[in-house]
Design brief:
Elements: E1 2-3, E2 11-16, E3 19-22, E4 28-31, E5 34-39, E6 42-46, E7 55-59, E8 61-66, E9 68-72, E10 81-85, E11 90-94, E12 97-101, E13 110-114, E14 121-124, E15 127-129, E16 146-150, E17 154-157, H1 171-181, H2 196-213
Parallel strand pairs: 1-4, 2-5, 3-6, 4-7, 5-8, 6-9, 7-10, 8-11, 9-12, 10-13, 11-14, 12-15, 13-16, 14-17
């Protein structure tokens, strides 16, 4: 547990390979007035099993940068895993995944909040799991929720999928379909015009009738 009293106006800057804030039978937290946390690897917060054994990172303003960030609620009541900004913004940037998973206990939330009137939450990640915008502060309401709440708004930024490749149309195939469809049936377009052999037979019959009349 690393704690700076709430009366301080200082900034805590942490650069680490990985950071685990994991509660067991007691809570675990990092909570200076202002926090700049840079993690080359993963940042993991996980709630515990006893009542109110929460895991949290808190500060007036919180800025976090990591490869992956995972917040998982615990099994006890009030065992949230949370990143809290109490007097400013919460900004989280990952090059990989950002994951929020609620626990099984009541109020075992996995959440990011900014509760000041001007506070906002902004999460930028390659992928986002459990990234729901909550309509109210999730804590102490008896349910376990996953998501983010901020008085001034929540923004999740993830890469947009590439546009679909253009479809190439083969004109010859298109014309064949049009011709076949114009016949009004599912069969090929057969002309009603008599064949050449039918024309010759009709001509012979007309000549024969003329000879008999003569």
């Amino acid at each position: 547990r690393v704690k700076v009293g709430s009366s301080t106006t200082g900034t805590m800057t942490i650069n680490a390979g990985s950071v685990d804030v994991i509660a067991g039978i007691a809570s675990a937290s990092i909570d200076p007035a202002t926090l700049d946390l840079t993690v080359a690897g993963d940042l993991v917060l996980r709630g515990g099993s006893s009542t109110s054994a929460f895991a949290e990172i808190a500060g007036g303003t919180v800025r976090v940068s990591a490869a992956n960030v995972s917040l998982t609620g615990g099994t006890g009541s009030g065992t949230h895993a949370a990143i809290l900004a109490t007097n400013g913004d919460a900004q989280i940037t990952t090059t990989g995944a950002f994951r929020l998973v609620a626990g099984t206990g009541p109020d075992a939330d996995a959440a990011v909040t900014a509760t000041a009137v001007t506070g906002a939450v902004r999460v930028s990640a390659a992928s986002c799991i459990g990234c729901n915008t909550l309509l109210a502060d999730p804590f102490d309401n008896g349910t376990a929720e996953a998501g983010a709440f901020a008085a001034a708004g929540v923004t999740f930024v993830t890469p947009q999928p590439p546009p679909p490749a253009p479809t190439r149309t083969d004109n010859s195939v298109t014309q064949a379909v049009v011709v076949a469809s114009s016949s009004g049936s599912g069969t090929s377009n057969v002309s009603n015009r008599p064949s050449v052999d039918e024309d010759k037979d009709d001509d012979k019959q007309r000549r024969s009738r003329n000879v008999c009349r003569g």
